[in-house]
Amino acid sequence: MAERAARPGPGTAEVFVRAPGAGLAAAALRARGAGPTGAGPVGGRGLCGEPARGFAPPQPGLAAAMIHSLFLINASGDIFLEKHWKSVVSRSVCDYFFEAQERASEAENVPPVIPTPHHYLLSVYRHKIFFVAVIQSEVPPLFVIEFLHRVVDTFQDYFGVCSEVIIKDNVVVVYEVLEEMLDNGFPLATESNILKELIKPPTILRTVVNTITGSTNVGDQLPTGQLSVVPWRRTGVKYTNNEAYFDVIEEIDAIIDKSGSTITAEIQGVIDACVKLTGMPDLTLSFMNPRLLDDVSFHPCVRFKRWESERILSFIPPDGNFRLLSYHVSAQNLVAIPVYVKHNISFRDSSSLGRFEITVGPKQTMGKTVEGVMVTSQMPKSVLNMTLTPSQGTHVFDPVTKLLSWDVGKINPQKLPSLKGSVSLQAGTSKPDENPTINLQFKIQQLAISGLKVNRLDMYGEKYKPFKGIKYMTKAGKFQVRT
Amino acid sequence: MEQNSTMLGKIIEVSCSIKSALKGKNFDVTLKPYLTVEEKRLAAAGDPCRCMKQYFTSNEDLKQMLESSKDSAKLDAMKRIVGMIAKGKNASELFPAVVKNVASKNIEIKKLVYVYLMRYAEEQQDLALLSISTFQRALKDPNQLIRASALRVLSSIRVPIIVPIMMLAIKEASSDLSPYVRKNAAHAIQKLYSLDPEQKEMLIEVIEKLLKDRSTLVAGSVVMAFEEVCPDRIDLIHKNYRKLCNLLVDVEEWGQVVIIHMLTRYARTQFLSPWKVDEVVDEYSESNFYESDEEQKEKDQKLKTIYTMDPDHRLLLRNTKPLLQSRNAAVVMAVAQLYWHLAPKSEAGIVSKSLVRLLRSNREVQYIVLQNIATMSIQRKGMFEPYLKSFYVRSTDPTMIKTLKLEIMTNLANEANISTLLREFQTYVKSQDKQFAAATIQAIGRCATNITEVTDTCLNGLVCLLSNRDEIVVAESVVVIKKLLQTQPAHHGEIIKHMAKLLDNITVPVARASILWLIGEYCERVPKIAPDVLRKTAKSFTNEDDLVKLQILNLGAKLYLTNSKQTKLLTQYVLNLGKYDQSYDIRDRTRFIRQLIVPNEKSGALSKYAKKIFLAQKPAPLLESPFKDRDHFQLGTLSHTLNSRATGYLELSDWPEVAPDPSVRNVDVAESAKEWTGIPGKPKKEKPTEKFYSESEEEEDDSASTSSSGSGSASESEKEDEDEGSTDESSGSSSPSEESTDSESDSKESAAKKRCRAVNESDSQDIKKKAEGISIKRSTSSSSDTEYTSSDECSSDSKSDSESGKSRNATSNKVSKKEEKPAQDRKTPKTQDMFLLDLDDFCPVTTPVAVPTAAVLSPSLAADLEGLSLSSSSVIDVTMQVSVPTKTHELLHRMSGKGLAAHYHFSRQPGIFGDRMVPVQVTVTNTTDQKIENIHIGEKKLPPGMRMHEFNPIECLEPGGSITATMGIDFCDSTQTASFQLCTKDDHFSVNIQPPVGELLLPVTMSEKDFKKEQGMLTGMNETSTTIAVAPQNSTRLVIIERVVKAANLGVVPSGQDNIHRFAAKTMHSGSLMLVTVELKESSTAQLIINTEKTVIGSVLLRELKPVLSQG
């Protein structure tokens, strides 16, 4: 690892030249720590910067690769995976990241771009893991960020969930996938269809088989994907049951003010597809009311011109799950808000007790039931505890994070769910000047709140009759009620 | 197995020790909560040390496993080694053991060894050289993926000694037939460059060559290499500019980003500023958003009187616009910055909707996008004003997002929306996130200074905040109020008094200092309070912050000058305190002030002006956005995000005063003429992406031509075209074989292209056709077809007149065609003759019955052909077929067809239905005495992958009549049967077509040299051969050619030797080469060799060709 890590610290220039043994990095680090703390660990790190790399590229800037290295860091600040696409960048570069992490109160506030003397650290935070890319020179930051997100998506696609444990368990697959995704720091294969052909995702069955036969997940046949007719679809797809499912999911983003009037509300929708069709099907999906869609972004498979001229989605789908379309419903349409929240939260100056009362009720639901209702609210710091009784569902108040969450479940219009009780405040502190905002989650099945309707789905190019299914759902996106 | 279990034991041991180490670490952490990050890292690093001993032993194990003969053991070892690498542990000592396995047959082991090699080769250079020969061998592998991966690994081994080998490999790979290999070559360029910058010149040559590549696969990678190696060689781009613009939609997303950024820089050096006009015409107005394209065009027309946008500039803007719909945020941002930096101000607005859309994305994407919007919104408010509500803050947003949103809202504030905004701000001020609340107060301050109407409202609001319970809020308000009062100090005595009272409660130094400064500055307005404030602060002087101390001194000095009677003693007391202060700043200041205000002999003239110095009118501070001058960095770049120059940032140049010569982008004639023949070996791989969008390209092209018509380039291209036409001709006639047909085919080819185009324009509804995509149209050679095209040509003339530079080939050929017409007329019968020779008993039936509308040529092919040089790539051209088999097959017997009979034969007219479809001519005959109506194809039962293009239904067939229709079937390079139903009005009959393997081919011409080269790459598994007996009468050259070509649709390769005959073709579906060699030996035997990747087809073909030559 850190061979030849020259550290120009004040008075402690240590050069490690290819010492034998495995725990070299550790040795280097230990030596650093064990030395006289003259420079001080923090000062030493902060001032003298990262160590010069052993086999440094000729000049910084010349040896630019888009993404030089990737470090995966967990919540407690351990680097649990590293991958280098060019010469090795010492782990110590992450110290700058840790510094920023410490400075930020929450993981969310760690800046995505951190400059260091010789590198730039671009990170994304997902699934409680920081994916930190090290880059050396000018590059569009979104390029790197978008790529990192794609990496996470790929892991998720491969392993179902993306967590530290899963990544550690599948380190070889992860490594192989990363190897294929970037060449010299430049994205090579990012379509999951292609990747899955190169490296088979692990399944329980395959894991068992692999342990017995001792084979890995590397595809034993070379994929034709890179060169297939359709870059995002692998060739030779075969299913006994041919199915195509489309989920139209709309999310309502809204801010509701104290009095219950809407400050802003918009609908963002996506169409997620799960297509398992044999061969090379060519699908067209048309809407009853395509004019509703104001701003759209497509999976690369969608033929843009066809949409422009006819408002029809025409595409050869990738195999498996993918997001076909995301859209925004034009702002002219008034957004129907399906639920309302009645709230009465008050703190009194004199006593250390406050009142808390919320009721959730359906508003414009087009006759459908509102399910999966979940109310969360971040209480002010001065709140010590809450004594509440819900009319239905369960509620939890975490006295450490001060987060109140109430899992309501279904809303019964005859008997509206409510949560009542008292709030005890820290004695001696004055009442908080702002009431907490209430975040709402809910689901309405079989309804697209914008009124979007799929007209028909047709398949060309293949002979069989596929099973087609379309599902609608409305969800709360970022739905906030100010109190 | 046993070995495995011992391994397992070891692993458990290791993990246990790690666990205990971790426990120890956690323990430390809880004991010492102040542990620094550094120490934590050390603690974490502690565990590998502790189990170092075990590593040594396990490494021995690994070595043994790698030496083992069993693949499974090796694999297991490699997996563990990769695990070590991933954790950042050193595995370099295993190098010798690992590198031995580089030639492993097992692909899984091989891959992992590659991973290892890339990681450690640099450190073990000598040993790494052992692996090089393996890669060199793999570079010659017939499989493109193996070639590519060999190049990839070879170039990733950062060992300087192999630079020449790498250089050679890159050069070779850059002219590889497979675009995937070429893509990898482009990647390798950067790697080699970073390893050895001295190779720059040579690498630039390779880049230049690859830039001309037509494949969308290559484009992104080579531009990347260009940006890395020679971003200043803008001259390399000229010739490829139009091609890149046209390809852009089809390039993969990452490549798009790189290309767009590069083109932005390019355009800024090559085109005139479109902004100067804007300044005259109008500022950006909201209506532009909703303006339709027509209106836009009209407007452009208007502008043209003053400024004409270079058509190439327009081309770039138009071709990038659809990418705003990309799912990739980086692409959208790239287009947005391109519009920002290149588009006329009135058009830049189209990007805002897409940018706002990105705000739904992840936090990191939001962060970058918001930063860019912030910069944009300062200069052009109108762009984002309609989306104001999208920037409203949610309490769940991270602080950095909140502040950025606030920034943008402040930038967008104007008279109309300020009241809504202020109401929104009021909510924010109360936020639990105090950092954000403070930022809001600053924002209110900025709104107040920028919009004079609301200054008073804001000020009152801020004063209310002074009674807020939170200190940070109050402090921030004080600071902002101070700034506001400074801008209009006239009548704010009351506020100052109020603030003076606050002094007792506020502890935040900045706020205290601000209040003191205010009182000092306006001490004449509050004559009673000021001295009292000084008295109070003098008492607390020693306990104040430095910042406050300075202001106390300041206040003292000002009061001394205005009201010395009351404050003289107080001031002197303060000055004395300051004199002995710990901070030298304070001591300095004290000395300075004392000299100025207290007159003595030394101070001289200055003290006379002390009042003027201290109480001068001070300019009000400007409350500005921190994003104010970020726009000198190109938007969307890292430098912009950091607001400082990042390494390797390339400055965006200013618009040139005078536009450089636009003709440099015209692609010269010789090149395109050459490409004409050079292309067909390659385009196979380009099609996939092309087919998806080419229809759009086409339409765009058309509009391009309309908008750019009348500009200089059009006429220029016309001129060029004539040249091209003549070169075409000459090249045709100079070709050694088949002179007449060759030149003929050239011109016909273009005619055919144009026809497709016309057809395509008129009929773009056919879904199926679109799905099949647009294919490269090859020359057609049946006589009837020739007639058809030439007649069609006249009708499309008018259309093609308006085509511009992109469809140059079409236009050019039109020109040449016109000249040639008389000559062609003469030739036509000749060709007919030639066919009649072969078609002894089969009468050529006119095909136009079933209008072959499906054959469509992407006009971009014309552009495809530009910018691809022939210099080193081999010439493999699809030719017209030499012979048409006479044999017809029965499709439906008249007995089973109730009087309807059908025959089919393979017409070998390539490309009618797209180049993957084997054209089949079906002749239906009515043997009944009644009319048969509505003959069409019913239900199809095709094997997976197979597709079929039906013939148009035949409405009515008279008794005794027969009619021929053409259909296309894509057999997917297999001899599987295509079953379908032939239906009439009343009946349907199941029929099937099974293709002879010879019909699944498409003849190509190539030179003997290329043939040998290709053959060299298709050896081993890919070669099948057999010895056959040749009947004596068959041994002459002509007979052999005739027979072989009749049996299979092969192209003849000119041969230098009399006894060797070569034929070449490629498979219809996948485009794999099929090389056939017939080598005559003594005693009437011959060696028949077939080289192809498609070994199955190869062996079937071999079997079929065998009897052809041996029979009499």
Any idea what the radius of gyration of chain B is? 40 Å
Beta-strand portion of chain B reads: 5-15%
How would a textbook summarize the main sheet of chain A?
9 strands, mixed
* The level-1 CATH class of the largest domain in chain A: Alpha Beta
Question: What's the pLDDT, averaged over the residues of chain A?
Answer: 78
Give the class of chain A from helix and strand content and strand pairing. alpha+beta
Output the CATH topology of the largest domain in chain A: Beta-Lactamase
Overall average residue pLDDT of chain B:
72
Could you give the count of β-strands of chain B? Answer: 16
Helical coverage of chain A, percent range: 10-25%
Spans of chain B of 5+ residues with little confidence (pLDDT < 50)? 1-6, 14-56, 278-291, 669-875
How far apart, in Å, are the first and last alpha carbons of chain B? 64 Å
Count of helical stretches of chain B: 46
Summary, kept brief:
By secondary structure, chain A is an alpha+beta fold. Chain A is 18% helix and 37% strand. In chain B, strands 1, 11, 12, 13, 14, 15 and 16 form a seven-stranded antiparallel beta sheet that branches. A five-stranded antiparallel beta sheet of chain B has the order 2-3-4-8-6, with no helix packed on it. A four-stranded antiparallel beta sheet of chain B has the order 7-5-9-10, with no helix packed on it.
Walk me through the structure.
Chain A: Residues 241-482 form the MHD domain. Chain A: It is a peripheral membrane protein. Chain A: One of its GO terms (cellular component) is presynapse. Chain A: Keywords: Cytoplasmic vesicle, Golgi apparatus, Membrane, Protein transport, Transport. The complex is a heterodimer of chains A (483) and B (1112). With 483 residues, chain A is of the alpha+beta class. Chain A has three domains: 67-213, Beta-Lactamase, CATH 3.30.450.60; 243-335 and 447-481, Immunoglobulin-like, CATH 2.60.40; 339-445, Immunoglobulin-like (Sandwich). Chain A is 18% helix and 37% strand. In chain A, strand 16 (339-347) and strand 17 form a beta hairpin. Chain B is α+β, with helices and mostly antiparallel strands. Chain B is 56% helix and 9% strand. Chain B is elongated. The chains are: A alpha+beta (483), B alpha+beta (1112). At the A-B interface, helix 1, helix 2, strand 4, helix 3 and strand 6 of A face helix 2, helix 3, helix 4, helix 6 and helix 8 of B.
